[in-house]
Structure formats: structure tokens, C-alpha cells
Write a structure and sequence with these properties.
- The protein contains 8 helices and 11 strands.
- β5 and β6 form a beta hairpin.
- The chain starts with a helix and ends with a helix.
- By secondary structure, the protein is of the alpha+beta class.
């Protein structure tokens, strides 16, 4: 009887939307004139066979610290985009491209509307670690989670990796390997409201490097709690995408006002049901991160939105003296648990990039 009840619950959740994944961090929805800040370290990528929170990693991240894929959002459900994720043809994207061909290139408003409704948004999925910083809600302290980063945030990381030095000594910037757990930069995600969506333009790295935890053993605990990111990417279901396209073309289904291209918002749809165990917060006393080389993504009709990114190679363990959390002032943050759609990209920036590529 209990199995029947579990199946009932599962099916009801599927009909309502995606069930919440306890390993996923979803930024809260920012309100007008509100600024929310959280701080985390970006963790290095995984190789096949590495230890993760749910067992051994099933697929290598090829030296990158992130997994890139794309998805559409229609009528309260996600559709993994084959064009952005694997470079295959996506009927829904093609429908969008066909619509764009009918609109004058000077009509930016109409083209943006079509792009938002029919084209997939890129997702840069990373493992992150929340240190016990005053900026972070207590419930996030010492948690390792995965985060679907926006293009705005990803571009910050890309630019940092591409820099060869800190620049102006009076205004230094993060550079080089941003994910090295022995010498990491803390990233401050600043969430504000813009046009009804979350915006991350004011996010930045804090510029002092430090080990992510007080000892090598504590650092390794954090790394062993990473999530197998490829296991979280749902395969594209072409039959369902084709059915949706047919319904859109015949007018038998209409997209709700929040569907289509994912904006810089949080997720109301929630993530797939996850049965892997949720670990207790890791007991550590400091903070961390790691990445290495990147190429900005580009969307086209025929090619996937691929991003060559920062390769990360964990360094050999050496004793590191205990490090404390940076002492600059940190605002107290109240975590708004409400969510809207996905914690994806700044949609205007992504849309503009896609339209320029056509």
C-alpha cells in the first residue's frame, strides 16, 4: 500500500510541475528596490569515478567546472533543448527561427518576444559551496549544492579566468583559476529586480584568495559532497517537443505568459524528483572555489550553444594554515523562499546575443 501511495504522490507532483530537488540552489525572487546577496565558492569539475554525494561520478565534465545545457519552459514544464544541449535539431527552436525570419530585423520588440517564447535558454550548471558567511542564510551554511547560473554570472567567471593578473593594485580583480579549493575566490551573487525578473549584474568576486575550509580534510569533505551534474540533465524528449510544436502550429495549445525563454528568475517549476541522500551540512570553519578556461557560448540555427570553459585540475594537497572568513562588512540577508521560474540567465542579454547571431 505504501508503494501505491508513493506512486500516487509522484504522479501528482509530475502533473503539478517539477518536484523540488533538495540539492539545487534556487535564488529567491527579488522585489522592487530590494538587494539580496549570498556568497559561495564555485567548486572544480568532476571526472568519471570521482566520489560524489550519491556515489561515483558517472560522466566526466572534461576538465570544465560546469555543465552547459539548454531548456524550454512551456505551460509549467521544462523541455530539454537538443540544439543547445547536444547540437541536434530542435523543432521548437526551428519554429522560433522560422517566425523570426518573418519579422523585420529592425523590429527589436517583436523579435525579442519571439526569441523569449520559442528559443531555449542556456543553463550553466555548477557545484557550489556556501561557507558560514553572515551574508548567507543559516540554512545554507556549509551546504554543497548545484546552481543553474545565468549568462551574466557565467560571463563574470569567464572574464576572470581569462585575466592573467589582478590589474590595478588599487582595484584588484579576480583572475586565473577561480575554482582552486586551496586558493579560491568567494563569489558574491547579488540579486536585484529588473523588469520583473531577477538580475545579477552587480554580482562579483571578492578579491582575496583563500582555502575553502580550515584544513585539507575539511576541504576534501566538501569536494566529496559535490553532485554528479550530468545526472541532473534530463535527456531531450523529441516526441514531446514535436507534439508541442504541432499543437502550437495548429493553435490547440497556447503558451502561458510565463513560458518560453527562461528569464533571470527563480524556478517555480521545481526540479526532478531526486532520491539521492541529502547530506548533513559539512562542519567546516572557512570558505572555497575553483575553474580554468572558457569560451563564450553562441546560439545559431544549426549549431548547439556550446561553451568551451575553464578547465580545472585540483592541486596536490599541501598543509595550509587555518584561514578565517574575510572581515569586510557583510549585510544581513533575509532569504526569500518564494520562487517564480528558473534561476537562469539575464534573458535580455541572452536574447540579444541570439538575435545578433542570426
Amino acid at each position: 500500500m505504501s508503494n501505491d501511495l508513493e506512486q500516487l504522490r509522484k504522479k501528482m507532483k509530475e502533473r503539478q510541475g517539477r518536484a523540488s530537488d533538495p540539492h539545487e540552489y534556487k535564488p529567491p525572487k527579488a522585489k522592487l528596490n530590494e538587494a539580496i546577496e549570498v556568497r559561495f565558492y564555485i567548486l572544480p569539475g568532476l571526472s568519471a569515478g570521482d566520489k560524489t554525494v550519491s556515489g561515483l561520478c558517472s560522466r566526466s565534465m572534461d576538465g570544465l567546472f560546469h555543465v552547459e545545457h539548454g531548456r524550454h519552459y512551456y505551460n509549467k514544464r521544462y523541455y530539454t533543448c537538443p540544439r543547445v544541449t547536444t547540437g541536434e535539431v530542435c523543432p521548437l527552436c526551428n519554429l522560433g527561427f522560422d517566425q523570426l525570419d518573418l519579422i523585420d530585423k529592425g523590429d527589436k520588440a517583436k523579435r525579442s518576444k519571439v526569441a523569449r517564447e520559442y528559443l531555449a535558454s542556456p543553463v550553466y550548471r555548477v557545484n557550489i559551496y556556501f561557507p558560514p558567511s553572515k551574508s548567507n542564510p543559516v540554512e545554507l551554511h556549509n551546504k554543497v549544492m548545484f546552481f543553474d547560473a545565468s549568462k551574466t554570472a557565467y560571463n563574470h567567471w569567464f572574464d576572470a579566468v581569462m585575466r592573467t593578473d589582478a590589474g590595478d593594485p588599487d582595484d584588484p580583480r579576480a583572475y586565473g583559476d577561480i575554482c582552486d579549493p586551496k586558493s579560491a575566490y568567494l563569489y558574491q551573487l547579488s540579486i536585484t529586480e529588473k523588469g520583473g525578473f531577477n538580475n545579477y549584474e552587480k554580482s562579483k568576486f571578492l578579491t582575496s584568495r583563500q582555502q575553502i575550509a580550515a584544513s585539507d580534510n575539511e576541504t576534501q569533505k566538501i569536494l566529496d559532497a559535490r553532485i554528479d551534474l550530468w545526472s541532473k540533465v534530463e535527456p531531450a524528449e523529441l516526441d514531446k517537443i514535436e507534439k508541442l510544436v504541432a499543437e502550437l502550429e495548429t493553435g490547440t495549445v497556447s503558451n502561458d505568459s510565463n513560458s518560453g525563454f527562461q528569464s533571470d528568475t527563480t524556478d517555480s517549476g521545481d526540479a526532478p524528483v531526486d532520491h539521492t541522500p541529502v547530506p548533513e551540512p559539512i562542519t567546516v570553519r572557512t570558505e572555497s572555489a575553483v575553474p580554468k578556461s572558457t569560451t563564450k557560448p553562441k546560439s545559431t540555427k544549426t549549431e548547439s550553444t556550446k561553451t568551451e570553459s575553464i578547465k580545472t585540475t585540483p592541486k596536490s594537497e599541501v598543509p595550509v594554515p587555518e584561514v578565517s572568513v574575510p572581515e569586510e562588512s557583510e549585510p544581513d540577508i533575509t532569504s526569500d523562499k518564494s520562487s517564480v521560474f528558473s534561476s537562469n540567465d539575464n534573458d535580455e542579454e541572452d536574447i540579444e546575443a541570439i538575435l545578433k547571431s542570426l
